[in-house]
Amino acid sequence: MEVTLEAVKKVVTDVLKIDGNNITPETRFIEDLKADSMDQFFLIDGFSEAFHVTISDEDAKKIKTVGDVITILSK
């Protein structure tokens, strides 16, 4: 599966139960979407499941924005 903004937005909106219309690559999970530590855990899990990948703890710590997810998953 190709990692696109739309695919990442789908995971974000499903996990956080929010409207994704304003999500851009620059959208920050904590500051903009008010994701707490549990939300972040479920987001990482959601990305792993949706894209059939394992995200290392090291990579997970680097994820601050939607664009970071796309970059890390595109490796």
TrEMBL record:
The lineage, from the top, is:
Bacteria, Bacillati, Chloroflexota, Anaerolineae, Anaerolineales
List, alphabetically, the Pfam families matched. PP-binding (PF00550)
Top-level taxon in the UniProt lineage: Bacteria
Q: Where are the transmembrane segments?
A: none
What's a Gene Ontology MF term here?
A: acyl binding
Q: What organism is this sequence from?
A: Flexilinea flocculi
| Entry keywords, A to Z | Fatty acid biosynthesis, Fatty acid metabolism, Lipid biosynthesis, Lipid metabolism, Phosphopantetheine, Phosphoprotein
Lipid biosynthesis in keyword set: yes
UniProt-listed SUPFAM superfamilies: ACP-like
Put simply, this protein is called Acyl carrier protein
